[in-house]
Amino acid sequence: MDGQQVTLNHEREIRTMSGWPMLFAVIAIFVVSIALFILAAVWGEDGSIGTGGIWTLILVGAVLLTLGIILCVGFFTLEPNETRVGVLFGRYKGTVRQGGFRWANPFWSNGPTVKVTDVRSGDAAAAMAAVTKKGQSGSAPKKYPRYKVSVRARTLNMAKLKVNDRRGNPVEIAAVVVWRVRDTAQAVFDVDDFERYVETQSETALRHLASSYAYDHGEENESTLRSNVDEVTQALKGELDQRLDRAGVVVEEARLTHLAYSPEIAQAMLRRQQAEAVIDARQKIVHGAVSMVDMALRELAEKGVVELDDERKAAMVSNLMVVLCGESEVHPVVNTGTLYS
User: Fold this and answer.
1) Which has the closest alpha carbon to 217: 171, 276, 259?
2) I need a surface site. Which of 31, 139, 222, 256 has the fewest CB within 10 A?
């Protein structure tokens, strides 16, 4: 480390001219330059002026023609929610946010060239193949035309990631992130490729989030990925805001779109969940049966319907518990003798 700190850039808005007045001026310059060439040819043929005058007209016409060509480079258009970053000889001059047909300094740079590389694998060829698959040229590096940067909301639908949760269980997780560029100067100058930066940092944040929470069945008062969706969503958004602030990007929304155990342990976890569901159901059934038996004995005693000793009460409790807790239908046996026979 050389101890040098990277300079952070911040956007400043600048205003430019409407393109229509300058368009008429450029047309007038072209008309005058062509007229001077015609006059030089006509007067040179007639001998109305000397050789010096002819060359003067040609020189002035050439200068005006060159000026008109240079001024034409300054025309550009901006759609709604589109900006252009002004860079003059390597220095940031400001950002144009006015839409429509505009004219600015023709010596502004036409756009930075960004080398497309696969950040995760370091394989540039694979990255170029991915770019070619999207319909772009695989031989040319990525380029922002005329430093135009869209500030519209964009959606990043991340692919499924296989990570380990807090308990070490492999899970599959995916998320969707809605983001937009807030500071165009930071997006263009503080990171190499802000779109690739958003993708990489979003994947890193999602992996870190999945490893910080258990999938489910956490300890008491512990948040989990499955049961605390809102808290997990806020945590993901907060981490993305922190990671992407350097690139001048703000996250509008971040939400999980897929959450499941990995296939190799999915069946085992499913059996565990089924067993826990059966246990919970049994607990409720037993609790309800005990309450009903207690109510029956209390009602019989209070209303004096029948007096039972401890042995008969135990037998009655046993029979009622079998009836209430059994899974199959119970067929009662009617006692035709006395109660104590």
Assistant:
1) 276
2) 139
Secondary structure class of 151 (helix, strand, coil): coil
Paired residues of 195 in beta bridges: none
CB 175 within 8 A of CB 256: yes
Strand order in the sheet with 100-103: 17-18, 100-103, 75-78
122: left (phi over 0), alpha (psi -120 to 50) or beta: left
How far apart (Å, rounded) are the C-alpha atoms in residues 192 and 142?
11
> pLDDT tens-digit profile of 78-90?
999 999 999 999 8
270-280 pLDDT, tens digit each? 666 666 677 77
The single-letter code of the amino acid at 62 is A
Question: Exposed/middle/buried for 206, CB within 10 Å: 0-12, 13-18, 19+?
Answer: buried
CATH number of 149-261: 3.30.479.30
State pTM to two decimals: 0.71
Give the C-alpha separation, 84 to 110, whole Å. 10
Contacts of 245 (CB under 8 A, 6+ apart): none
